[in-house]
Amino acid sequence: VFSSFSAQKYKYESLVSKVMYARHLDSDYGAMLHIVDEVLEQNIKEVIVCYFYLLTSEAADEISLDELIEQELENSFKEVVDFNCSRAIQHLQKLGLAEVNSEGSIKLTELKDIDPLRKV
Questions:
Q1: pLDDT at position 50
Q2: pTM above threshold 0.85
């Protein structure tokens, strides 16, 4: 199992290196755009994961949500992950999808109560 994981990891790293090299040959600007796109995509995934676990679990605050997500990711992928919910929760608040009260409790906003014309 570990050898197949190592082989897959090596293939992935090799592919990433080749892509980044090709993008560098294209232009530094292209490589930077690619990296920015990857970061934005990662942020969106973090927001979706936090929203899902807030929707489907009993997690009521950032600490319990963070611990729950880390445990679920470890159980699913057999890999220790340091998931940080704070940025995702801030995005959910900015989008009007969640509220955090003074005690740190997180509450999802009812979809019917969200203003579709809200400026982000």
A1: 95
A2: no
pLDDT of residue 58: 86
DSSP for 49-111, written as a single string? HHHHHHHHS---BHHHHHHHHHHHHHHHHSS-----HHHHHHHHHHTTSEEE-TT-BEEEPPG
| For range 49-56, the mean pLDDT | 94
What gap in Å lies between CA 104 and CA 24, rounded to an integer? 44
Pick from 97, 81, 82, 107: which is nearest to 47 by CA? 97
What's the farthest any 2 CA atoms get from each other in the chain?
Answer: 52
Alpha carbon 86 to its chain centroid, in Å, reads: 11
Nearest 5°: CA angle at 16, between 35 and 4?
Answer: 135
